[in-house]
Design brief:
With 300 residues, the chain is an alpha/beta fold. It is built from twelve helices and seven strands.
Length: 300
């Protein structure tokens, strides 16, 4: 497996660019650019700006204007919105007794390295493939990012049936403590059967009251934006493999021991997480990605 996930890097770039270029933010991630490093940040900037004909064939403007248009209209909505949704839910869960935060397929997720005071009591577990985790830790070292005491790195292979064993067997993990799990940007690249297997493993491990947050591609009518992003993922050799209706998602979760607690469709996401930003940035308005839903589920 390759060490770098291009989709993870583009996601981090989206968060970094938004943070660098807006005074009023949908989501603030000052660590994202440090994780990417200047070389990767500039390379992605150039590639995206040069790709404007793919997204907007009739575009007229500078390279920087092209980059801004692509980021605002095609790249940033999902990484920003889902991160804001997940961390808002995590904060609520921490107030209700959650003690462990499990980040599945952590990639270049940066929460642990910019965690607010309310998160200091959490034990944070970043789960990822060893090569991906190694690449991230090298980036953290190059960026001189401080590693907090409450984080643990767990090497797993999600393609293996018993992928969850390294977490279960970790000395710092307590299966009796209420946990919060995030699976951001993951379901697009998992076959349905793998997603169901992952849910079964989590359902068997986590105690009642634990939470699971994720975004997923819906089966609503596809848009031009959806098709373009699918083509980009295919080009990065990380094809999108599944999508779900609300009814299907509700049934899958129920069968695996989870109940939907909160569910947001694109219009609701835009209202909740983008409206205030749009008021302050009328020339750079953003809306939630088409055909992407957010879900917060609770272990029964």
């Amino acid at each position: 497996m390759k060490e770098k996930s291009m989709t993870a890097m583009v996601s981090a770039f989206s968060r970094a660019y938004h943070t660098q270029n807006n005074s009023h933010k949908i989501f603030n991630d000052p660590v994202a650019k440090i994780l990417l490093g200047e070389e990767d940040y500039q390379e992605i900037s150039r590639n995206m700006a040069n790709g404007i004909p793919f997204f907007y064939p009739s575009f007229q403007g500078s390279e920087e204007e092209a980059l801004r248009w692509i980021v605002d209209n095609k790249l940033s909505a999902s990484p920003l919105g889902r991160a804001a949704f997940a961390e808002k839910a995590l904060q609520g869960a921490s107030l209700l007794g959650t003690q462990q935060y499990i980040v599945l397929a952590a990639g270049l997720d940066s929460f642990a390295y910019r965690q607010p005071d309310w998160a200091r009591k959490l034990h944070i577990f970043e789960l990822d493939h060893p090569a991906t985790a190694k690449d991230k830790q090298e980036r953290l070292e190059r960026g001189e990012v401080e590693i907090p005491d409450n984080i643990r790195y767990i090497h797993v292979d999600f393609q293996q049936k018993d992928w969850i064993s390294p977490l279960r067997e970790n000395n710092y993990f307590d299966k009796n403590k209420i946990s919060f799990c995030s699976m951001l940007g993951l379901l697009y690249y998992l076959p349905r059967e793998d997603f169901e297997t992952m849910l079964v493993s989590l359902g068997d491990l986590l105690p009642k009251g634990s939470s699971l947050v994720f975004d997923y591609p819906s089966k609503d009518e596809e848009s031009t934006q959806t098709n373009q992003l699918q083509q980009l993922a295919q080009g990065a050799k990380e094809p999108m493999l599944a999508n779900y209706s609300y009814g299907e998602m509700e049934q899958i979760l129920c069968d695996c021991g989870f109940l939907i607690y909160e569910h947001l469709a694109p219009q609701e996401i835009t209202v909740q997480f983008f409206s205030e930003y749009n008021t302050h940035n009328p020339n750079h308005k953003m809306k939630a990605a088409d055909n992407v839903n957010y879900c917060l589920a609770i272990k029964k």
